[in-house]
Amino acid sequence: MDKRDVSPEDFQQLLNWLGPDPQKAGEKYESIRRGLTTLFDNWHCAEPDNLADETINRVLIKVRNIAETYSGDPALYFYGTAKNVRHEHLRRPRPEPLMPNIRIAANPDTDEKERLHACLDKCLDSLSRVDKDLILEYYRAEKKVKIANRRELGERVGVSSNALRVRIFRLREQLEKCICRCLEVPRSGNKLSRTSLYVGGSH
After folding, report:
1. What DSSP state is assigned to residue 4?
2. 178 lies in the same domain as 114
3. Contact at 8 Å (CB) between 173 and 3?
4. Do residues 39 and 130 share a domain?
5. Domain enclosing residue 73, as ranges
Protein backbone atom coordinates (compact mmCIF):
# COMPACT_ATOMS: atom_id res chain seq x y z
CA MET A 1 0.00 0.00 0.00
CA ASP A 2 1.17 3.51 -0.80
CA LYS A 3 2.25 5.20 2.45
CA ARG A 4 1.73 8.75 1.16
CA ASP A 5 -0.06 10.90 3.72
CA VAL A 6 -3.75 11.48 3.17
CA SER A 7 -4.52 15.19 2.97
CA PRO A 8 -7.72 17.23 3.25
CA GLU A 9 -7.42 17.79 -0.49
CA ASP A 10 -7.67 14.02 -0.99
CA PHE A 11 -10.95 14.01 0.92
CA GLN A 12 -12.25 16.88 -1.17
CA GLN A 13 -11.28 15.12 -4.39
CA LEU A 14 -13.02 12.00 -3.12
CA LEU A 15 -16.20 13.98 -2.49
CA ASN A 16 -15.94 15.52 -5.94
CA TRP A 17 -15.70 11.99 -7.36
CA LEU A 18 -18.80 10.93 -5.46
CA GLY A 19 -20.89 13.71 -6.95
CA PRO A 20 -21.01 17.37 -8.03
CA ASP A 21 -23.42 18.38 -5.26
CA PRO A 22 -21.43 18.71 -1.98
CA GLN A 23 -24.33 17.75 0.27
CA LYS A 24 -25.30 14.69 -1.75
CA ALA A 25 -21.64 13.67 -2.07
CA GLY A 26 -21.24 13.90 1.70
CA GLU A 27 -24.36 11.79 2.20
CA LYS A 28 -23.05 9.21 -0.27
CA TYR A 29 -19.72 9.11 1.54
CA GLU A 30 -21.44 8.42 4.87
CA SER A 31 -23.65 5.80 3.21
CA ILE A 32 -20.58 4.05 1.77
CA ARG A 33 -18.84 4.08 5.14
CA ARG A 34 -21.89 2.60 6.86
CA GLY A 35 -22.08 -0.02 4.12
CA LEU A 36 -18.41 -0.93 4.58
CA THR A 37 -18.83 -1.24 8.35
CA THR A 38 -21.84 -3.49 7.86
CA LEU A 39 -19.96 -5.55 5.28
CA PHE A 40 -17.01 -6.19 7.61
CA ASP A 41 -19.42 -6.92 10.44
CA ASN A 42 -21.21 -9.48 8.28
CA TRP A 43 -17.83 -11.02 7.50
CA HIS A 44 -17.32 -11.36 11.28
CA CYS A 45 -14.17 -9.22 11.23
CA ALA A 46 -12.91 -7.70 14.46
CA GLU A 47 -13.41 -3.92 14.66
CA PRO A 48 -15.35 -3.53 11.40
CA ASP A 49 -15.47 0.26 11.68
CA ASN A 50 -11.66 0.43 11.74
CA LEU A 51 -11.42 -1.82 8.69
CA ALA A 52 -13.92 0.48 6.98
CA ASP A 53 -11.59 3.40 7.76
CA GLU A 54 -8.64 1.46 6.35
CA THR A 55 -10.58 0.76 3.16
CA ILE A 56 -11.51 4.43 2.80
CA ASN A 57 -7.89 5.50 3.36
CA ARG A 58 -6.73 3.18 0.59
CA VAL A 59 -9.26 4.62 -1.83
CA LEU A 60 -8.32 8.15 -0.75
CA ILE A 61 -4.70 7.51 -1.66
CA LYS A 62 -5.70 6.27 -5.12
CA VAL A 63 -8.52 8.68 -5.93
CA ARG A 64 -6.33 11.13 -7.85
CA ASN A 65 -5.35 8.40 -10.27
CA ILE A 66 -8.72 6.72 -10.72
CA ALA A 67 -11.31 9.51 -10.56
CA GLU A 68 -11.07 10.55 -14.20
CA THR A 69 -10.97 7.08 -15.74
CA TYR A 70 -13.17 5.00 -13.45
CA SER A 71 -16.64 4.25 -14.79
CA GLY A 72 -19.61 3.03 -12.79
CA ASP A 73 -20.73 3.53 -9.21
CA PRO A 74 -17.75 4.58 -7.03
CA ALA A 75 -19.25 2.56 -4.17
CA LEU A 76 -18.36 -0.61 -6.06
CA TYR A 77 -14.69 0.40 -6.02
CA PHE A 78 -14.84 0.77 -2.24
CA TYR A 79 -16.41 -2.66 -1.87
CA GLY A 80 -13.80 -4.23 -4.15
CA THR A 81 -11.07 -2.64 -2.04
CA ALA A 82 -12.81 -3.94 1.09
CA LYS A 83 -12.41 -7.51 -0.17
CA ASN A 84 -8.65 -7.01 -0.38
CA VAL A 85 -8.58 -5.48 3.10
CA ARG A 86 -10.55 -8.45 4.45
CA HIS A 87 -8.19 -10.98 2.87
CA GLU A 88 -5.17 -9.22 4.40
CA HIS A 89 -6.95 -8.94 7.74
CA LEU A 90 -7.58 -12.69 7.83
CA ARG A 91 -3.88 -13.39 7.18
CA ARG A 92 -2.72 -11.17 10.04
CA PRO A 93 -1.97 -12.51 13.52
CA ARG A 94 -4.64 -11.70 16.07
CA PRO A 95 -3.65 -8.47 17.81
CA GLU A 96 -3.28 -8.54 21.58
CA PRO A 97 -4.43 -5.52 23.62
CA LEU A 98 -1.55 -3.37 24.78
CA MET A 99 -3.48 -0.33 25.89
CA PRO A 100 -7.21 0.32 25.83
CA ASN A 101 -7.15 1.74 22.32
CA ILE A 102 -3.78 0.93 20.74
CA ARG A 103 -3.11 -2.62 19.63
CA ILE A 104 0.11 -4.29 18.62
CA ALA A 105 0.55 -7.80 17.21
CA ALA A 106 3.81 -9.55 17.95
CA ASN A 107 5.23 -13.04 17.65
CA PRO A 108 5.04 -15.22 20.78
CA ASP A 109 8.50 -14.32 22.10
CA THR A 110 7.98 -12.67 25.51
CA ASP A 111 11.11 -10.51 25.39
CA GLU A 112 10.13 -9.16 21.99
CA LYS A 113 6.61 -8.41 23.19
CA GLU A 114 8.01 -6.46 26.11
CA ARG A 115 10.32 -4.55 23.78
CA LEU A 116 7.42 -3.69 21.49
CA HIS A 117 5.32 -2.58 24.43
CA ALA A 118 8.12 -0.43 25.79
CA CYS A 119 8.62 1.22 22.40
CA LEU A 120 4.92 1.95 22.02
CA ASP A 121 4.78 3.46 25.51
CA LYS A 122 7.83 5.59 24.70
CA CYS A 123 6.37 6.76 21.38
CA LEU A 124 2.99 7.57 22.88
CA ASP A 125 4.78 9.65 25.51
CA SER A 126 6.65 11.50 22.73
CA LEU A 127 3.34 12.90 21.46
CA SER A 128 1.93 16.08 22.87
CA ARG A 129 -0.58 15.54 25.66
CA VAL A 130 -3.36 16.67 23.32
CA ASP A 131 -2.38 14.26 20.53
CA LYS A 132 -1.84 11.36 22.92
CA ASP A 133 -5.24 11.85 24.53
CA LEU A 134 -6.81 12.31 21.10
CA ILE A 135 -5.57 9.04 19.59
CA LEU A 136 -6.33 7.05 22.74
CA GLU A 137 -9.84 8.41 22.92
CA TYR A 138 -10.38 7.90 19.19
CA TYR A 139 -10.02 4.13 19.60
CA ARG A 140 -12.05 3.91 22.80
CA ALA A 141 -14.93 1.42 23.15
CA GLU A 142 -16.26 -0.92 20.50
CA LYS A 143 -18.52 -0.87 17.45
CA LYS A 144 -21.52 1.47 17.78
CA VAL A 145 -20.24 2.99 21.03
CA LYS A 146 -16.92 3.74 19.34
CA ILE A 147 -18.65 5.41 16.39
CA ALA A 148 -20.64 7.64 18.74
CA ASN A 149 -17.50 8.49 20.73
CA ARG A 150 -15.67 9.52 17.55
CA ARG A 151 -18.53 11.73 16.48
CA GLU A 152 -18.56 13.42 19.88
CA LEU A 153 -14.77 13.74 19.83
CA GLY A 154 -14.85 15.56 16.49
CA GLU A 155 -17.47 17.95 17.81
CA ARG A 156 -15.48 18.55 20.98
CA VAL A 157 -12.23 19.41 19.19
CA GLY A 158 -14.13 21.44 16.62
CA VAL A 159 -13.28 19.53 13.43
CA SER A 160 -15.27 17.58 10.87
CA SER A 161 -15.21 13.79 10.89
CA ASN A 162 -13.07 13.87 7.73
CA ALA A 163 -10.53 16.24 9.27
CA LEU A 164 -10.43 14.12 12.42
CA ARG A 165 -9.65 10.99 10.40
CA VAL A 166 -6.82 12.78 8.60
CA ARG A 167 -5.36 13.87 11.94
CA ILE A 168 -5.60 10.35 13.40
CA PHE A 169 -4.12 8.84 10.24
CA ARG A 170 -1.09 11.11 10.56
CA LEU A 171 -0.69 10.34 14.25
CA ARG A 172 -0.76 6.60 13.51
CA GLU A 173 1.91 7.10 10.84
CA GLN A 174 3.99 9.13 13.31
CA LEU A 175 3.70 6.39 15.93
CA GLU A 176 4.65 3.67 13.46
CA LYS A 177 7.76 5.56 12.35
CA CYS A 178 8.73 6.20 15.98
CA ILE A 179 8.31 2.53 16.92
CA CYS A 180 10.40 1.41 13.96
CA ARG A 181 13.17 3.80 15.03
CA CYS A 182 12.90 2.50 18.58
CA LEU A 183 13.16 -1.11 17.35
CA GLU A 184 15.97 -0.06 14.99
CA VAL A 185 14.27 -1.65 11.99
CA PRO A 186 13.13 -0.05 8.71
CA ARG A 187 9.38 0.11 8.16
CA SER A 188 9.80 -2.13 5.11
CA GLY A 189 12.42 -4.35 6.72
CA ASN A 190 12.11 -8.09 7.23
CA LYS A 191 12.14 -7.91 11.00
CA LEU A 192 9.13 -5.63 11.04
CA SER A 193 7.30 -8.04 8.76
CA ARG A 194 8.11 -10.99 11.01
CA THR A 195 6.90 -9.25 14.15
CA SER A 196 3.75 -8.09 12.34
CA LEU A 197 3.68 -4.67 13.92
CA TYR A 198 0.43 -2.75 13.62
CA VAL A 199 -0.41 0.52 15.32
CA GLY A 200 -3.96 1.70 15.76
CA GLY A 201 -7.28 -0.07 15.55
CA SER A 202 -7.52 0.02 11.80
CA HIS A 203 -4.68 -2.48 11.28
Report:
1. P
2. yes
3. yes
4. no
5. 8-91
